[in-house]
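On to my pick:
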Amino acid sequence: MEKQQVIMVGKKQSFLARVMIKKIQDQDIACEFVPWNVDAINAHWEHTALVILFMDERERPPEDILRFLVDKVDDTGNMMILVGEKQDLALLSEQIPKELVYQSFSRPVNNDQLANTVSDFIRKVESGEFRKSILVVDDDPGFLGLAREWLKDTYKVAMASSGLQAIKWLGKNKVDLILLDHEMPVTSGPQVLEMLRSENDTKSIPVMFLTGKSDKESVMAVMDLKPEGYFLKTIQREELLRNLARFFAQKKEKKS
């Protein structure tokens, strides 16, 4: 995984901003100041995990920049730390969805506390704590290994080689999506889905079937069970990742 960086976005790099950035850099975290300008933000966005929105002397970002930042953070799954006067923080709390804000700091800021908060966030990002989690259920160890390699850099991935093993694992763990083999011995995919939907703790977990059969009759049989969708096992890595990203984005839109 590429090392994650932090950008501080503000009108100008004041003395206070430089002190904050130095404190963060002392934690061995890449951090730099970026003026609130769309081109400048885009130019520094790669590998950015956290945006510090810095408001010095009651200087709130222009509306178009704020909307751009909110959309950018939301689209890429990042988060923000807000720094400013209490009045400004209160106003921004009405414009920025709370799930995008990791923490807010009102002035005067404890720079050590800010740096430690940034360090804690980066540690969580690099450990995968904020990633969506996927359980892959398949009796083919070769496919399980391949799926793990494809997904591990983007998602938290768990594996189960049978339906009963998956049910047991779900008794102790939570997951955002299950990729479930449709054709398994002993306990088939449809049987596992029926078991999941009969329990209150698992009935709302989204399930997508994995199938090796692409003929119309087989696909219709899969979709009659009303999963969230299905993937053919011949799918390529980039297409799988693209479809999963689309699924989670659509799910997020339905909630908002």
Observations:
- The longest helix spans residues 237-255.
- The chain has two domains: 5-126, 133-255.
